[in-house]
Amino acid sequence: MCCDLKRRFLLLYATQKGQAKAIADEIWQQAGAHGLEADMHCISEMDKYNLETEKDPVVIVISTTGTGDPPDTARKFVKKIQGTTLPPDHFAHLQYGLLGLGDSEYTFFCNGGKTVDRRLQELGAQHFYNTGLADDSVGLELVVDPWIDGLWLALEEAFLLQKEKEGMSSDAVSSSLCAAPHVGHELNLSSEVQNLKLEDERVRSSDVLTQKLVDIHLVASTRDTEPSLIHSVPPVSQTALNIPALPPEYIEVQFQDTHGENPHLSSLISEGTTFEVPVAKAVQLTREDAIKTALLLELDIAGTVFDYQPGDAFCVICPNNVNEVEELLHILGLSEKREYFVCVKVKQGTKKKGAAHPQHIPERSTLKFILTWCLEIRAIPKKAFLRALVECTSDAGEKRRLQELCSRQGASDYTRFIRDSNVCLLDLLQAFPSCKPSLNLLIEHLPKLQARSYSVSSSNLYQPGKLCFVFNIVEFPACPTRPVSRKGVCTGWLAELVAPLLHPNKNTLDTKGGSSPNPKIPIFARPNNTFHLPADPSVPFMMVGPGTGISPFIGFLQHRQKLREEHTDWEFGETWLFFGCRHQDRDYLFKQLRCFLENGTLTHLKVCFSRDSSTAEVAPPKYVQDVIRLYAKEVARVLLKERGYFYICGDKKHMADGVSDAVVDILSMEMEADKLEAMKILAMLREAKRYLQDVWS
User: Fold this and answer.
1) Which member of 38, 80, 337, 437 has the lowest number of beta carbons within 10 Å of its beta carbon?
2) pLDDT digit string (tens) for 568-597?
3) How far apart are CA 641 and CA 637, in angstroms?
4) How far apart are CA 29 and CA 65, in angstroms?
5) Which intervals of the chain form a coiled coil (predicted)?
6) How many alpha carbons fall within 13 Å on the CB side of residue 312?
7) Residues forming beta bridges with residue 577, ordered by sequence position
8) What three-state secondary structure class fits 109?
9) What pLDDT does residue 206 have?
10) Cβ 385 vs Cβ 288: under 8 Å
11) Which domains does the chain have, with CATH numbers?
């Protein structure tokens, strides 16, 4: 840069799982190459910045968590700016650009960022750069990369405007800035990412400031005409590459002795009290020939203070697969050091801004403990991780391919062969055998191993001291990018753990001849503030839960049955349940639903089976959204006339969206209104917490 003094901007991030911070780190790194100083802070560190007096441009990177909430680190900030006494010109001096992260598989896409953006606007703040909304369901980088590319020119113009406001002539400002052609920087950053293009090559050429230009031409053999994880084809294989800047190392690892104890699992959790509870019972709900295997586990919580309501969720603290940990140790050449204690420290003199000891890594624990309980070794590697792995790879061809996968030119290959294929670190190390990363690199780039959340499928009133939940065993079949099949991290572990309970005649005796004790699992509460039964029992409600989505509704019905038994003088509203599965005889998870129907707890039970053949003249509906349409008048009556509740649990993309569409059509038809008006009514029902979803992607 030709400027002597670096111009400053404030860079704030609000992260839940580390994504927003990683993107902020990338912006911070690139800022220096553009002659700018990024003053970076977590948005929770409100003692280190002051938006009320901030004169420089502000860049905010913020994620979304839960059902559209800002991340935990942003809660105090959001509460502060939402103060009702703040005047409409409170932030009139503020110039900002915001990048929101979210997942369009969920209802409130990027709502954390949208909430902050909307409130800053209400308080008079001005955009110096268009808001970007990145969608994790198709790849954050499809919006993030071009948003960062356009940021630098937007900042230049913001600084220019800032100087003009301070009374400097535009000529004087121009002479103090590096000569750069003026180009438009407005980007269409909607979630329709297929329309996202960077058409101005002058913006594109600025990448050279921050990205190393790789010019290695490897000609593909004529027989390899299709790209794969390890192989590329023209034009990617024959082009110069723009790859990200190498992330600075900031972790130092020291191996110590083998004496001592690992920390308790509860020390890894900051969300609440951890309970280690025994599995009292395990039942396979599906037949052996069902496409998916569903298990019901009953936990004994009688000896704890763990409490819950029907509709709540809870989290299971699970380990990585023991065989995968051993395989990773072997590839890293650290098998003999698995039981050695490791001391993790921040590297002295690191160039990483705000480098800190990762909170999810204990100060002292064994190598095996870190890889088993702390790091998400199944995580899909980010491009920054691939860039770091390039430096650990000795084979020229493998090095080039990793460069391609993290480059701008190889974006579609990254999406296809890494992101969409659910490739993990082990897959990469097997595909690129000359890649030998250090342990500190894994600690720097692998995220925290997250506890897995499950819906409660019972009522403490109906079954005191018991907590039940239902899950499908997740399967990842072998494919070209993954040579072996794998089960889900948590569901695979749980299935293996309870196998003796499912098959009591196999290996149930311990070495002393007695029966094995019931296995225990660590859990902690994750209360749901909204997905509960109506406070007024006389209010009617409808439940839609195909497959394992029925789980919370079993708890609803158990609770309702017990209330009916204990309060015979109460008035209870009608209850509807729409359930669906593939085959009636293979995966109808709770055939005892008929009992709820017979004793009056459940008023209406409507079921459908999508893969069963029918000989009827008129084919029965296949999916729950089709069944709901058959009861349009009843749906409209419950929602509109009787102010009832509507609950949905299950798959977001293939079910919940279809149900929402059906409800919109029903409202439109029954109200004789256009679709837009019906959508507004549905939005109002959501806002009133009478249309509630507990969904997953």
Assistant:
1) 80
2) 999 999 999 999 998 888 888 787 798 999
3) 5
4) 26
5) none
6) 17
7) 543, 605
8) coil
9) 36
10) no
11) 7-162 (3.40.50.360), 541-695 (3.40.50.80)
